[in-house]
Write a structure and sequence with these properties.
The complex is a heterotetramer of chains A (about 425), B (about 300), C (about 725) and D (about 210). Chain A is of the alpha/beta class. Chain A folds into 3 domains: about 5-100 and about 180-195 and about 360-425, FAD/NAD(P)-binding domain (3-Layer(bba) Sandwich), CATH 3.50.50.60; about 115-170, no CATH class; about 200-355, FAD/NAD(P)-binding domain (3-Layer(bba) Sandwich), CATH 3.50.50. In chain A, about 25% of the residues lie in helices and about 25% in strands. Chain A is built from 8 helices and 24 strands. In chain A, the strands form 8 sheets. In chain A, strands 3-2-1-11-24 form a 5-stranded parallel beta sheet, covered by helices on one side. In chain A, strands 13-20-14-15-16 form a 5-stranded parallel beta sheet. In chain A, helix 1 (about 20-30) runs parallel beside helix 2 (about 60-70), helix 1 runs parallel beside helix 8 and helix 5 (about 220-225) runs parallel beside helix 6. Chain A is globular and about 70 Å long. Chain B folds into 2 domains: about 5-130, Up-down Bundle (Glutathione S-transferase Yfyf (Class Pi), Chain A, domain 2); about 140-300, Rossmann fold (3-Layer(aba) Sandwich), CATH 3.40.50. In chain B, the strands form 2 sheets. In chain B, strands 2-1-3-4 form a 4-stranded parallel beta sheet. Chain B has a 4-stranded parallel beta sheet with strand order 6-5-7-8, with helices on both faces. Chain B is globular, with a radius of gyration of 19 Å. By secondary structure, chain D is mainly alpha-helical. In chain D, helix 8 (about 115-130) packs antiparallel against helix 9. Chain D starts with a helix and ends in a 5-residue tail after the last helix. The model of chain D has no long low-confidence stretch (mean pLDDT about 90). Classes of the chains: A alpha/beta (about 425), B alpha/beta (about 300), C alpha/beta (about 725), D mainly alpha (about 210). Chains A and C meet through helix 2, helix 7 and helix 8 of A and helix 11, helix 13, helix 17 and helix 21 of C.
């Protein structure tokens, strides 16, 4: 991609998840020049790592496929992966953006034939399985990866594996000499669709995520349920690979908690309700899911889904914030707490505990331009000069539907910015 | 001129011939080795302890703590107050925090102090001895003077409540603090890291009024130490020490258990590891003798 | 395009050359495929390979290209030749990656590859490069129906983007629900205090905007046409009518409050029991002073009953949650506390639903002393001058009763959706419904509704995909929502409306086949006026003329081909996708004789989910039967039964169809396609019996895009089944 | 009914929450509870609480004055602070419990024979007397609180421990004759007196 194609008529979208892809596509399909940058080697973001969506129980990759097709067919949209925004200067309608491009060590020649991965032996925890599996150091992130090109992890450089990968490639696609580079772009408007990250579960000490193997997060549970995931879609306990048939879902793991995240992450209740249906899907009537909650926030039509789950005999609800978790000798977990509806004390054993982990803005980890306004949790409201916008889960904790809605709206606002500049220029 | 000087707040239980006098003994020996000078806050008073709430009320409790601060500020200017007792540290630290963030309370308190011609300037810091060891020295420094590593002795690090919550030691978690384990390691002993009653409440505050309830707590604490193969329990808190040690015989009597688990202070371990005698380390003050430590001390 | 010059390019890379006899395939392309030009390349997607193809297009006048290499989903950037018709034979994901390893499989592997090449050539011959829809529609005005927060926002955003807007409001003023509010729930930092609604300012901006024309006291009497060329007739209250034209429509007709009178058990109808709208009115009247009741008495105690007539399991009231009511009650409780902290304010809830930063707003109310009680109200009655609220305190687990000067029922939102077109015409409910758009569409007057009368799009990833192209619902009419979401939603809808007019302007398809220039063409002379196409089109794109002939409105069409699949006389087709493009592929497959023990299975796979799943099966090297021949289709709805019967007649041993999930939670991108296909196939059994064939020879499956392992398994099981029931007796007759 | 109590009832009528906010240590936090129940589940003596902290908060909001103040529950607090560090709303629950107990005690509504109430009172009086705790007197006072006979019983029961402590020089029989005390006892008492006076005036607890 040549930086030169960017002008102050160009819209920059930061983040290639569902929100960013949507903002970029909608703007490009309105005839705008768009550059979409993603810091990972593939588009798709976190939704690509989900098994199903609530409330339809349909598959995220289904929408991703359509979006990728839209993207492949659109000549106005340029994608830069492994690219991070390091600086934004200038003003509304006329920004200069610095991008750091990290080396992929694989060029456009790659046909995704997979020979390099076969050749190398080095492995690393698979970030696309939240570390629940291992992946080769030469890898294709996942089956829906776009661009459909392999990646060499920096760790491989200088090792024998690097050479193995290089010689295994028949198409001159591997370029070990690739270096990090910085490029500058002129853009008229910026959409921050940097999305979210799961809150660090280890910080929620009473739940022992860092001490007990069978306490996992909701995003990890998605990987377990996914047929493309580490267990091929089987719900097995990390500690001993035994089937997890009696599962506890703990709501507000980090959310609504001034010791952690002040805000409610909105999606966790629905995510857990959805996940109880994974358990049923896997084991039929021979399973038990228990949701420990403060308030079930199944807003608007989602109430229908909540009711459906309530009617499922394998699913139970306890109105309680679990006080603490203890582990017994077989690796099972005892949840201690009190059901506040009528004050009933419990100490209940479960095979597996899934923490409905809160959404933290991914942007909390990156340096935003000074002009950007964020709320008390770090979600992006936009820039004071009105030329930059937050979209999707970067702007507030949202589900996919709202994220797409917000991204579509942000796209229009960005278009207005570049229109105004254009207008000024002709005048 | 000693390496470090502090305004010392021993607290009631650490006085001569009081329930934690052996704590005091071992702290003195430990400080000697570390070249720490502890100067008692002249005429210090009781912190009121958490149990003092019922009769004491809010302001009187804060005021008597402020009295100690004022005395320290006047007589030992520039020195941090260091408490060895968990309750004293908590009572003082809590009072100080509330005073520092509430100007009204501050005004009222000084009004009360004025009755004894005292004034609190909010300059002094209140710390626990463990904080001093970890923050002002650090594990490496603490390791240096070790003469007699506590080789082969398995310790369950029992942190309890009040040195751990709500303030705790910086960087440690409330549910799984690791500093006692690290100290034991530093001294060449074997920490029982999987010990799962680390932060269980011993019921100390209610030991007298609700003996059965608190003795159940103690039973869990000791039992789990045995289950995890510990030979001794080590703790930073005199109330924990007293309760967990003293009531074992009671529990044995009532419930037919055969508990005989020594319960020591980190300072006793340090004193021994630093080459202190059984007496220096206050081992003679144990109701349940720590035989293996005594052996090491005698070496 | 003058005359056709075909060329086939066979890639030998990615192991194709090692696993297949490429020279043999070149022969097939020449002799059987009748390709004018056949080239082989060891790395076709390389710059050199691509340059080779481009060169032929420019210098040799090649107009039709077969790429025999990887899947059509791969290497799209390289194989991007906008000026020629192109088909792709999937030799990598479709053959070498899925046929079992080993020499014993060489023969079937080669046969499979050759067939795909034959199919590619055959398809190509029937393909045309879409020239684009000649009936372009160039009206770019955006019509917004409804002048509330959502409508005004949509109008302003579109106007600010430079488009002409017509805003139609049925009442005499702009503002809608938002104008009835004293204050609004905070929508940006800090989320602690209620904020000004800003409605007046917004209305003023809308009124003053040069690009916006406003029609008050007006409703829509009729709407005809299609995106880019809507003709709309307005009826004013006065009786006067105006006609106008528009390119796209945004329906922001909002919601009404659930009728409090239907909640007598909760005191609906009592003097001192109001709904949230009623409380806003009292707050407006108080204008920041202590709030008084209708009887003028100052309110000293108030109880808010959440979920009144909502989340109702009995079916008597609304079954859903309206989302905004918890925050709204919190805001209203603050009205009281801010004017007089001594007022007792109790919010009675079962689940307090204030997501996101709403949590800060909740805290703020608690700081102000608003009391939150988890309880379920069983009844509200008048007791002298006050109301008695009987409820179960779910925390204290006891029946309690509470006296309050005023009770506020948080009733829900009822969408103003117009006529439910899915109701039977004789349904009394339908008679009472007043149409909003008065569409003269063959399939009904208003936007189709999903559940609860909401005109929501069904798609999670594509919230704006309504079933009426160029008409977008925004705000609480499509989903219960608060003001913040409504404004976001309206802004998004404005963008989609803009896209719709631009698409219509260049005769291009809308989502999900964005940019597709092909469109349905019909040979009316062959049409039997059976109306299947007009009835079955999921998007109501086809009307009927007075002679019952179908009238296609291309800019309403989404190019799924359901009409093509429906047509019994096969007079509907697309330039690059037709009964022939697929039929030819089916015929091109080489059918071994009965005794070869090499069955042939036709697999018609939806290109949206099933085909990608097959690709990913390849990527994961799941092996499946080399006897299968897969053809991607736009949607199972486009499958014409003639393909099935032709296939069976020409000796295929079985036909598999793989499409998206249908039913309540359908995942078909064209709403009804896969469902229709299943329905049509259920009728095919008779045909099979006539042919003397087992019903198992045609099977359809719902598959999801993640089913990569499963599709392989399905194919293998089906192949086994065919072996079990034996080869088709039809071979050699076709 | 104690003077303080009748006066409070008069002053606050049914508004128990306001009474708690004004008169109970950290009482202004009660309204911030969101009923998650983590406190109830975190308490080591939890099973012995008739009403968990979160439930007490709800009762206060519900105006259940008599039940709350006469409850035995808050006397079960061991001051372990588990609830405090886990509370998602960061309520100082331990102190609120102490505050409620102390307030109930002050109004004379606390259960008469509540052992912790008795011990806590003795403890304070003991330390207030000399400025430092006299462990021996405290212990004996405790043993003999129910009269000589039962006192001797308990004392004998605990004799082994007592002697053990003495042997270990961790209990000093001589303390009976005085023991540790402050030099400026007068000032110490003045401070307490003054502090109490200020607090009572502020909370309207002057009778």
């Amino acid at each position: 991609m040549k930086a030169s194609i960017a002008t102050n008529q160009t819209i920059l979208v930061v983040g290639g998840g569902i929100g960013g892809m949507t903002a970029a596509l909608e703007a490009a399909e309105c005839g705008k020049q768009v550059i979409l940058v993603e810091k990972n080697p593939t588009l798709g973001g976190r939704t690509a790592l989900l098994y199903r969506y609530f409330p339809k129980m349909c598959h995220p990759t289904c929408g991703l496929e359509i979006n990728l097709r839209r993207l492949k067919g659109n000549r106005r949209l340029r994608v830069l992966t492994q690219a991070e925004v390091t600086e934004v200067s200038g003003r509304n309608g006329d920004y200069t953006v610095k991008l750091k491009l990290s080396p992929r060590y694989v060029n456009e020649n790659c046909t995704a034939c997979g020979e390099c991965a076969l050749a190398v032996s080095g492995q690393m925890p698979n970030p696309y399985d939240y570390g629940l599996s291992q992946i080769k150091l030469a890898y294709l992130p996942h089956a829906m990866a776009y661009p459909q090109r392999y990646v060499l992890d920096p760790a491989i450089i200088g090792t024998a594996d690097a050479e193995k990968a290089n010689s295994a490639c028949k198409y001159g696609a591997i370029d070990l000499a690739m270096k990090e580079e910085t490029i500058e772009l002129k853009v008229g408007s910026v959409i921050w669709a940097t999305g979210w990250k799961p809150y660090d579960a280890a910080k929620i000490q009473p739940y022992g995520y860092d001490r007990f193997a069978n306490v996992i997060t909701s995003v990890e549970f998605e990987r377990l349920a996914d047929p493309h995931g580490p267990t091929g879609g089987k719900l097995l306990r990390p500690s001993d690979g035994a089937p997890a048939k009696n599962i506890a879902f703990i709501q507000c793991a980090g959310s609504r908690d001034e010791n952690h995240l002040r805000h409610c992450s909105r999606i966790c209740c629905m995510a857990s309700l959805k996940q109880t249906q994974y358990v049923r899907e896997a084991y039929g009537d021979d399973c038990k899911s228990t949701i420990y909650y403060i308030d079930i926030r199944a807003i608007d039509r989602f109430e229908d889904f909540y009711r459906k789950v309530q009617q499922d005999p394998t699913v139970g609800f306890v109105k309680s914030k679990v006080a603490r978790i203890a582990q017994n000798e077989n690796g099972s977990l005892i949840l201690h707490g009190v059901d506040t509806e009528g004050y009933h004390r419990y100490a209940t054993e479960h095979d597996l505990v899934v923490l409905a982990i809160g959404m933290e803005p991914e942007a909390n980890g990156i340096k935003l331009p000074d002009d950007i306004v964020v709320d008390s949790s770090g979600f992006i409201e936009g820039s004071k000069d009105g030329g930059q916008f937050g979209a999707g889960a970067a702007a507030s904790p949202t589900d996919v539907n709202r994220s797409v809605q917000s991204a579509t709206a942000a796209a229009l606002r960005a278009i207005q910015v570049v229109h105004k500049t254009a207008a000024v220029e002709v005048a | 001129m000693a390496k470090k000087e502090y305004a010392f707040y021993p607290g009631c239980s650490s006085q001569l011939k009081a329930s934690a006098s052996n704590y005091l003994t071992s702290v003195n020996s430990m400080c000697k080795t570390l070249d720490v000078k502890l100067t008692e806050i002249p005429d210090w008073n009781c912190c009121g302890a958490s149990i003092g709430y019922a009769e004491g009320g809010e302001l009187p409790r804060i005021a008597i703590n402020a009295r100690n601060f004022a005395l320290a500020e006047t007589h030992l200017p520039g020195q941090d107050i260091v408490a060895t007792c968990a309750a004293c540290w908590l009572g003082a630290r809590e009072s100080k925090d509330r005073l520092d963030e509430n100007s009204v309370l501050m005004k009222e308190t000084n009004e009360a102090l004025a009755a004894a011609g005292l004034h609190y300037k909010a300059e002094v810091k209140v710390r626990h001895m463990v904080e001093v060891l970890i923050e002002d020295f650090g594990y490496d420094e603490l390791k240096k003077p070790v003469k007699k590593p506590l080789e082969g002795v398995k310790f369950a690090g029992y942190v309890g409540c009040q040195t751990n919550r709500p303030f705790g030691i910086a960087g440690e978690s409330f549910e799984n603090p690791k500093y006692l384990d690290k100290m034991v390691e530093t001294l060449g002993g074997e920490p029982v890291e999987s010990y799962d009653q680390k932060v269980t409440c011993c019921g100390g505050a209610l030991a007298f009024s609700e003996p059965d309830k608190s003795q159940k707590q103690i039973r869990d604490i000791v039992e789990s130490a045995y289950d995890h193969g510990a030979e001794m329990i080590v703790t930073p808190c005199p109330l924990c020490q007293a309760n967990v040690e003293v009531y074992q015989s009671e529990i044995n009597k009532k419930q037919g258990t055969k508990f005989n688990m020594p319960v020591l202070y980190y300072s006793q371990l340090m004193s021994v590891a630093y080459g202190g005698s059984m007496k220096d380390a206050g081992l003679d003050g144990q109701l349940i003798r720590a035989t293996r430590l005594e052996e090491i001390a005698k070496k | 395009m003058s005359e056709m010059k075909t060329a086939a390019y066979i890639c030998a890379g990615c192991g194709i050359g090692d696993k297949l006899d490429v020279a043999q395939m070149e022969k097939v392309a020449q002799k059987e495929g009748k390709m004018a030009l056949v080239r082989r390349h060891d790395f076709l997607c390389s710059p050199e390979g691509v340059a080779l193809i481009k060169g032929d297009i420019e210098n040799e006048g090649v107009s039709h290209v077969v790429i025999a290499a990887c899947s059509r989903r791969a290497k799209t950037e390289a194989f991007d030749f906008p000026t020629v018709a192109m088909s792709r034979a999937n030799l990598r994901e479709g053959v070498i990656w899925i046929v079992a390893e080993g020499a014993e499989h060489d023969e079937v592997r080669q046969e499979m590859a050759e067939d795909y090449l034959r199919m590619g050539c055959a398809e190509l011959k029937k393909m045309k490069l879409p020239a684009g829809n000649p009936n372009k529609a160039d009206n770019k005005t955006i019509l917004v129906v409804g002048g509330g927060m959502a409508g005004m926002t949509a109008a302003l955003e579109a106007a600010e983007t430079g488009y002409q807007v017509v805003l139609v409001e049925k009442t005499g003023e702009l503002g809608g629900w938002a104008a009835k509010l004293w204050k609004r729930v905070p929508f940006r930092q800090p989320y602690r205090e209620a904020q000004e609604t800003g409605v007046a300012e917004l209305a003023a901006r809308v009124g003053a905007h040069p690009n916006i024309k406003i029609h008050l006291n007006s409703v829509i009497a009729s709407t005809s046409g299609a995106p880019g060329r809507f003709n709309v007739e307005l009826a004013q209250e006065s009786g006067a009518t105006t006609t106008l034209t528009a390119g796209a429509i945004i329906q922001a007709t909002g919601a009404s409050n659930y009728d409090i009178a239907r909640l007598p058990e909760l005191g609906g109808g009592l003097a001192n029991v109001v709904d949230q709208a009623g409380l806003e009115a009292l707050a407006k009247a108080a204008n920041g002073q202590p709030i008084k009741r209708a009887d003028g008495r100052e309110v000293k105690s108030v109880v808010f009953v959440q979920c009144a007539g909502q989340r109702d399991e009995g079916g008597a009231h609304l079954s859903y949650c309206s989302g905004h009511c918890c925050a709204t009650s919190i805001k209203q409780a603050m009205y009281f506390k801010d004017a007089n902290p001594a007022v007792d304010t109790v919010v009675m809830y079962t689940d307090l639903r204030v997501p996101g930063m709403g949590e800060d707003f909740y805290r703020s109310a608690q700081e102000k002393g608003v009391i939150f009680t988890k309880g379920r109200a069983s009844g509200v009655t008048a007791a002298g001058d006050v109301c008695k609220v009987n409820f179960r305190d779910l925390i204290l687990d006891e029946e309690v009763s509470l006296d309050a000067d005023l009770v506020v029922l948080a009733t829900g939102q009822v969408p103003n959706s117009g006529v439910n077109i899915d109701l039977a015409d004789d349904d009394p409910a339908k008679a009472q419904q007043v149409s909003i758009l008065n569409l003269n569409y063959r399939q009904g007057k208003d936007l189709p509704q999903l559940t609860h009368g909401l005109t929501d799009s069904h798609f999670i990833c594509f919230p704006y995909e309504t079933r009426r192209t160029g008409i977008y619902a925004a705000g609480p009419v499509r989903r219960p929502m608060d003001l913040l979401q409504a404004t976001e939603d309206a802004t998004g809808a404005a963008l989609k409306a803009i896209q719709a007019v631009e698409n219509a302007n260049i005769g291009r398809a809308a989502h999900p086949r964005v940019g597709d220039l092909s469109y349905p063409m019909v040979r009316l002379e062959g049409c039997t006026q059976c109306k299947r196409c007009t009835v079955e089109c999921p998007f109501g794109a086809i009307d009927e003329d007075e002679r019952r002939f179908p009238v296609f409105n291309e800019s309403r069409c989404r190019r799924c081909g359901t009409c093509m699949g429906a047509c019994p006389v096969r007079v509907i087709s697309f330039e690059n996708y037709s009964v022939d493009t697929v039929g030819n592929q089916i015929k091109a497959v080489d059918i071994p004789d009965e005794f070869s023990e090499k069955p042939r299975i036709l697999l018609l796979a939806c290109e949206n989910d099933a085909y990608p799943a097959l690709d990913m099966a390849g990527l994961a090297h799941h092996t499946y039967s080399a006897f299968v021949r897969a053809i991607p289709v736009r949607c199972l709805g486009s499958v014409n039964t003639i393909w099935i019967t032709d296939a069976l007649n020409s000796g295929y041993d079985g036909v598999m169809m793989m499409g998206c999930k249908h039913g309540e939670n359908y995942q078909c991108h064209f709403v009804k396609g896969s469902e229709l296909a299943t329905y049509r196939m259920s009728k095919i059994d008779d045909t099979l019996k006539q042919l003397g064939l087992e019903v198992e020879r045609v099977a359809s499956y719902e598959v999801a895009i993640t089913d990569n392992a499963r599709v392989a398994a399905l194919i293998n099981d089906y192949a086994a089944k065919i072996v079990e029931i034996g080869m088709s007796p039809m071979k050699g007759f076709g | 009914m104690s003077a303080h109590n009748s006066q409070a009832v008069e002053r606050y009528r049914n508004d128990f929450l306001r009474e708690v906010e004004e008169r109970v240590e950290e009482g202004q936090w009660v309204k911030m509870c969101m009923q998650c129940g983590v406190c109830a589940g975190s308490c080591p003596f939890g099973p012995h609480w008739q009403h968990s902290p979160q439930k007490l908060f709800m009762m206060i909001r519900a105006g259940k004055r008599q039940e709350v103040l006469s409850s035995d529950s808050m006397w079960m607090c061991t001051s372990c602070y588990n609830c405090v560090v886990r509370c998602p709303r960061q309520l100082p629950i331990t102190h609120i419990m102490h505050g409620l107990a102390s307030y109930a005690h002050r109004l004379g509504l606390a259960p008469k024979s509540q052992p912790t109430r008795e011990f806590a009172t003795m403890f304070w009086n003991n330390l207030a007397k000399k400025g430092r705790v006299n462990e021996l007197k405290l212990t004996l006072a405790l043993y003999f609180k129910d009269g000589l006979v039962s006192g001797i019983k308990t004392a004998l029961g605990m004799q082994s421990i007592g002697l053990g402590m003495v042997k270990a020089k961790r209990l000093n029989p001589m303390e009976i004759l005085g023991g540790h005390g402050l030099k400026d006892l007068k000032g110490f008492h003045a401070i307490i007196a003054k502090a109490r006076e200020i607090e009572d005036k502020k909370k309207g607890l002057v009778s």
